[in-house]
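Q: I'm writing up a methods section and want to include an example of the input and output format. Could you take the sequence below and give the corresponding predicted structure tokens, formatted cleanly so I can copy it straight into the document?
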Amino acid sequence: MSILNVNTIQPVGSGQTITVSATNISAPSTVVTAGSFVGNVTATTISGVSTAGITTAYIGSVNDGPISGARNRIINGDMRIDQRNNGASVSRATTDSNQLYILDRWDNTKNSNSKAYTIQRSGTAPVGFTSSLLVTITSTNGTNSSTDYNFIRQYVEGYNVADLMWGTASAKPVTLSFWVRSSVIGTYSVSLVIQGAGNYPATYTVNSANTWEYKTMTVPGPTSGTWPTDNTAGLAIYFDIGIGSLYSTTTNTWTYGQNVFGGSGVTKLTETNGATWYLTGVQLESGTVATPFERRSYGQELALAQRYYEIGATNSPGTGASHWSGRVTGVTYARQAVSYKVTKRAIPGTITTVTGDYGTFSSAAPTVNNSTIHGFAWYKLATGTSDDAYLAIDWYSSAEL
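A: Here is the clean output for your methods example:
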């Protein structure tokens, strides 16, 4: 490693060039004096620079590292996008046993157990943020059973983490950072997982009740396991709010080949009735440094979310997102093609259509066909005759991981 410690590089006449190449350039108070010119500086680290007249600077931590563009692999990490519920509270009953998306890209998965709670987008947030995800425990019988699981999760598409080279000898570390606030103090777990491949439950501590706290943790890249690098799930982030011992494992280390997604011996939010837990500012980035939260525009964040879920709907029946009008006589079909605003990750597994205005049509939902990653078509049979028939169709399309 070469280290160059300088206070001044001089003298340099007009038209002359100095090229400085070093792994570290430490504490230069003046790199360029009057009349001088530095053509190229190549360094991994430049620290303590007060003056630098540099034409070209190649700095590893800018061009190749954590402060380059598109750092955050998490979508909607600041919880602003909520296409499905627009801030409304979603109840999760003790008998619920399914995966349910709440805010965009964030799902809650639970099995049928004695725990019930609500989840919603909240306006309570730390300075610099406007939204958070809020979990409120509404029913519990205390201790989680070994087979319980309750968690908040985001799947990350394989294309978006392929460069991490997980499952190989060249696997890169990642750093996870987020803001959390809870009414229950204690040590919690958050896991990086691909079920059956690998699991790393990291720990974080809520030190003060009902206080926003910033947490960071670095996770070494796993050298084993199969981590997809295509349009399927490349990894997932599991925030444990109540995972039983059957699905938990040792914290702060990689385990492989187990169907687990929580940490052993940690605080379980679902064991405290009335407990609250807020989350926002979630960022997952390559490297060992937690950088400031990457703030994308609302339009950018929405478009990223719409790759997985898009809603074409209004709140006023008869004024839906897809409109058709025309003449129907007896056995006549209304038909229309719909184009997505954003190309989907895969052909949507679910497209729900709702008729907004019946007129000479039945109240049954239209039939969907010709579904692709770019759009779909719908059709509906008329039940009468009209020279001025009209339909307004709301639709919801999901290509979630």
